[in-house]
Specification:
This protein is 38% helix and 20% strand. α1 crosses α5 (120-137), α2 (49-59) packs parallel to α3 and α6 (177-188) crosses α8 (212-226). By secondary structure, it is an alpha/beta fold.
């Protein structure tokens, strides 16, 4: 289930399921304490890849805080397996802080990345920012009254906002939540150029607190889904020195 379908109002934080996957008990305890204090109550913990997969099957968490170095495997490989049981927002928590590690994390399907040591309040703030972003974008009954149907058609691909679906050449294509939100943002403003900072602020909702690689990797992964030749994009374009835009001329009327 997509997270925005569970978000009603900010008074429903207790309905959001959060899984903490880390083999350091002190980190798990600290995060649980802070998240409970911030209003989250459905908190689950796992210390291995096997436990995390079992947890995902049982509970289908909305958000996963995922360590990369686990006793029985890598959180990077676990990331893609978790998406077989839903489409959670995955935030990596790891001591591996090199640019290559960050890029690999996003390439494997992660949505956000925080390096250890970290402030647990920052983790809570990022989760709350994500929920606020989804809350403002969540489909409601009032959607019917809007001029737009929530379906965006651009040549070979279609984005259905209310269903959370990406259709490419008539076939549904899996798209992690953060990539879907980024693509949806472009669909809502075709032809408009957005800088990396603007995109991070609009889509991640954390006042632009992110590095360029975050946006770049997500742009690349979107292109792999919607472009005929991702290396020579015709739909999601790079505007040198300015940022990115979705080609307006590809929009179907």
């Amino acid at each position: 289930m997509l997270l925005w379908k569970r978000v009603k109002t900010m008074t429903c934080l207790s309905d959001i399921k959060i899984a903490i996957v880390d083999d350091e008990p002190s980190i798990v305890t600290m995060l649980q304490m802070v998240l409970r204090r911030e209003g989250f109550h459905q908190l689950y913990a796992a210390s291995t890849c096997a436990e995390a997969l079992d947890l995902a099957k049982r509970e289908a968490p909305d958000i996963v805080l995922l360590d990369i170095m686990l006793p029985d495997g890598s959180g990077l490989e676990l990331c893609s397996k978790l998406r077989e049981y839903g489409n959670p927002h995955i935030l990596f928590l790891t001591a591996k802080a090199s640019d290559l590690d960050v890029l690999r994390g996003f390439a494997m399907g992660g949505d956000d990345y925080i390096t250890k040591p970290f402030n647990p309040l920052e983790v809570a703030a990022r989760i709350q920012a994500r929920i606020r972003r989804l809350e403002t974008e969540a489909p409601t009954a009032s959607l019917v009254k809007r001029p737009h149907s929530g379906v965006y058609r651009f040549g070979r691909f279609t984005v259905n906002e209310s269903e959370g679906e990406l259709i490419v050449e008539g076939q549904p294509v899996p798209c992690p939540a953060q990539e879907f939100q980024l693509l949806l943002h472009f669909c809502k403003f075709p032809g408009v150029v957005f800088s990396k900072t603007q995109l991070y602020d609009k889509v991640w909702g954390i006042n632009g607190q992110g590095d360029d690689s975050t946006v770049m990797v997500h742009i690349r992964r979107i292109r792999e889904r919607i472009e005929i030749d991702p290396g020579n994009p015709k739909l999601l374009l790079t505007i040198r020195g300015l940022g990115y835009k979705l080609a307006k001329e590809s929009q179907e009327r």
